[in-house]
Amino acid sequence: MEIVAIVTVLILVEYWLISILVGKAREKTGVKAPAMQGAPEFERISRVQQNTVEQLIVFLPAMWLFAFYVHVTIAAGLGVLFLIARVIYCRAYLKDPSGRGPGFAIGQIAQVIMLLGGLIGAIMVLLD
């Protein structure tokens, strides 16, 4: 499970770095807290941060459930895939929000695999 813990920390560090980018965008564009609207540059990175939070709420428990009930190494691998997908999503969203689809889709695939795998694994243990 240590590899899943390491991937979890890497994902959380990625989120932390996105949060720093939001703060830098506030400074650069003059969008003062608590405002969430203003310069498009700020709004884009703010949306990346918010979407990442929304994904993490489901993704992190799903990864741990998958690791526990299905396979640790596969869970870690899917976690790294999710991490990379969020980088792709972020870079695309900052460049042109309409291009965010591939990064989002890759992350969703990893998330759905782990969510369903964790559920099926738990059901199989329950029925065993």
- Spans of 5+ residues with little confidence (pLDDT < 50)? none
Could you name the CATH homologous superfamily? Membrane associated eicosanoid/glutathione metabolism-like domain
Q: What Rg, in angstroms, do the CA atoms define?
A: 16 Å
CATH architecture: Up-down Bundle
Please count the helical segments: 4
Number of strands: 0
Shape designation = elongated
**Overall mean pLDDT:** 95
Query: Distance between the terminal alpha carbons, to the nearest Å?
Result: 23 Å
Helical proportion?
over 70%
Task: State the domain count.
Answer: 1
Give the H and E element order: HHHH
Instruction: Kindly report the CATH topology.
Output: Four Helix Bundle (Hemerythrin (Met), subunit A)
CATH class, named Mainly Alpha
Strand content: under 5%
In a nutshell, what does this entry contain?
With about 130 residues, the chain is mostly helical. It has four helices and no strands.
Q: What does this protein look like?
A:
This protein is an all-alpha fold. The protein has a single domain (2-127), classed as Up-down Bundle (Four Helix Bundle (Hemerythrin (Met), subunit A)). It contains four helices and no strands. The chain has helices at residues 2-29, 40-69, 72-95, 101-127. The model has no long low-confidence stretch (mean pLDDT 95).
